[in-house]
Amino acid sequence: MKTHSIGIVMNGVTGRMGTNQHLIRSILAIREQGGVKVGKDAIIMPEPILLGRNPDKLKTLSQAHGDLPWSTDMDSLLSDHEHSVYFDAQTTDRRFEAVQKAIAAGKHVYAEKPTATNSKDAFELHRLASKAKVKNGVVQDKLWLPGLLKLKRLIDDGFFGEILSVRGEFGYWVFTGQTVPAQRPSWNYRKADGGGIILDMFCHWRYVVDNLFGEIRSLSALGANHIKKRWDEDGKPYGADTDDAAYATFVTDRGIICQFNSSWCTRVNREDLFTMHVDGTKGSAVAGLREVKIQDESMTPKACWNPDLESPIKYSQDWKPAMAADSFDNAFKAQWELFLRHVVLDEPFRWSLKEAAKGVQLAELALESWRQRAWIDVPEID
């Protein structure tokens, strides 16, 4: 069995997402399964080294997972020849400079989104990577969620007929930290630190909509700073000065209208933290993170408006699960495996730094729409 070992500098994985999704459930899970199988007689084996600024956190994380190698010296790791891939899961405000240095050092780059706090810098990373001819990619994990994979299959099978509209609902109540610890880091709510739900979530909505419903061509967005005082990880109050909710409408090149609500200030009364309701001429579907329910023409009740009487129709009962028996791998791990194959085998990988920049562009245009209180066109990117 031939083994393609690939060294990966994993920067910023002491954070919640970096530890759980990228290190444990992706890279270490790939190692535990014996690597990524390539045909019958070869595997790709990732060899991670942890990078960060806090040696105590790095040491603790390393010891918890079999004494993984770690370092606080980024320049040293970028200058060696043992690690050909640089991965970045730092806070958004640190990503541009670090990824830029990794590209200059000739490393292949894989990064969390947003790749920068503004589209100019995000497109610059794409330009630099193209010029340096290094392989590059951005995490677009939601495309590999079981719910969205099932939804994509329904679209490809023509279940919907002509798709008319999409309603996306994302969010949950993030505690302020005053009496109950917050579930999200405090930097998310500080503008100077790269916080804000528009910059965070619209990068997701760009690739979700583009890949399922067509390229976004125009938008209207309204942001809100609902909760203006929160408490940080040390229990100290701070001013939460950036958007914690956003309400947007996107129109695609296929004429599909997509409404997306994003909020860290909402209490959930739906089946999942993220749902998409897709309506088409022949059928509709509601997709969550894992499950999808459908209603085709034959199952659609004939509803009549009469608020004076209790409805004889139990609307939620007229939906059935779609592809309930299918099993899917972890979404982050699935994309990691594709990126590793891209690096080693040169297989196609279209989720590049260019796609990352398009996500930042959408967030930037949404902020501009909010400022102008106007519809904004989304330029096509060559």
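[next item in queue]
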Amino acid sequence: MPLFRNAVFYRTIARLVDLPSDSLSEVAFAGRSNCGKSSAINALADHTRLAFVSKTPGRTQNLNYFRVAEGRYLVDLPGYGFAKAPAEIRAQWGRLLAPYLRERPALRGLVLIMDSRHPLTVLDRQLLDWFAPTGKPIHVLLSKADKLSHEQRLLTLRRVTSQLGEIGSQCSAQLFSSLRKSGLPEAENVLGDWLGLTGVAPDEGSSPVTPAESPEACRASPDGPSRRR
């Protein structure tokens, strides 16, 4: 059974003062418009409508909390990179997101969703460079991997892993497809460990993720996370 199948919508947060006080651990999901963030959350939860898949980029402006266990949450962050968003909305995102990502004690790690066909955009790099100094782990899901050929998937994962290694050892990456449900066990292992749910992981045979350390230290697997030699 998927590790997050029991996830339920908990609350939409528009102000930091309203963040759950009972939270023990949280995993935040970030990504650009149309990167497949909501679809990835839905796939992990084995649910078609847990996270709303909007056709309007930037529509979600708040933090959406999904409870997966007592005191443990998945947090869907507002999308970023919306140049057409009104200035007051961009300012609201800054007031909410910046202190949340930098100062939230319960935040255990950041899942960054990138379209595998267009990874590491300028905005992706800006978020990585901004968040990395917190020292908290970053796991990249290269979404829509089913759109690439086998060779393209391998090349993309190698390139992304190499560049993440230059940012820091707390970064890791894997290929992911919500449509094909590929990469789910590997992602569950990472998130389950961050949330303290590792003991109930459904697939004991999945390979653990090892952080990228340098371009030379990593090798790529076609559907799972990158690992050191």
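[queue empty]
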